[in-house]
Design goal:
- With 203 residues, the chain is mainly beta.
- The chain has helices spanning 6-20, 88-98, and strands at 28-32, 38-45, 49-56, 59-64, 73-79, 106-118, 121-130, 133-148, 155-166, 182-193.
- The protein has a single domain (26-193), classed as Lipid/polyisoprenoid-binding, YceI-like (Lipocalin).
- It has two helices and ten strands, in the order αβββββαβββββ.
- It has an eight-stranded antiparallel beta barrel with strand order 1-4-5-6-7-8-9-10.
- The longest helix is centred in the first third of the chain and has 15 residues, at 6-20.
Amino acid sequence: MDFLPAPLSRTLLMLTLLLGTPTVFAADRYSIDPVHTRVAFRVMHAGFSPSIGTVSRPTGTLLYDEADPAASQVSIDIDLATLDLGDADWNRKVLEDFLDAGDHPQARFRSTAVEAVSENLLRVTGNLEIAGGSAPITFTVVLNAHKRHPLTLKKTLGMQASTDFSRKALGIDAWPSLVGDRVHLDVAIEATLTDRNTEDTTP
């Protein structure tokens, strides 16, 4: 039996693999805009009214695949020192007694699944890490815009997300008779397409 020369054989093999393998496009990578991304939270105070606060200037990335949202990923970190409840003493008590910010200065969210509910609605599930605890939560995400920004001229994702979770599930159980267990989050998000497009989908 005749055999092809080794270099030609390798070339034909590579062509066969390339032609027989569909092209895979990586999700686009977006960087969180810390100025236009913010988290607002509320939790009942002594059964009278919800205490409302914010944390701001997050960092992180969104890997977004418009054609296949299930291939998308979210990775966000927030410095808890940005906490603002409108009062310096209340900020300090929450950071110390509830969030253990001295030992755990950052909150983190890492997605584990993204599901398209409709054209502009996503369900994003992942793990929230805060105060040394971790618990799964699911955000309902509304996609407001995915287009070129009129000021920066860069392609931008604009979204809003919301969820409720149990603080006790994260081990945050201080003052149970005064502070409610259910915490509501509202998140405003803008993220800008990065200059580097990569096949690495690990945020």
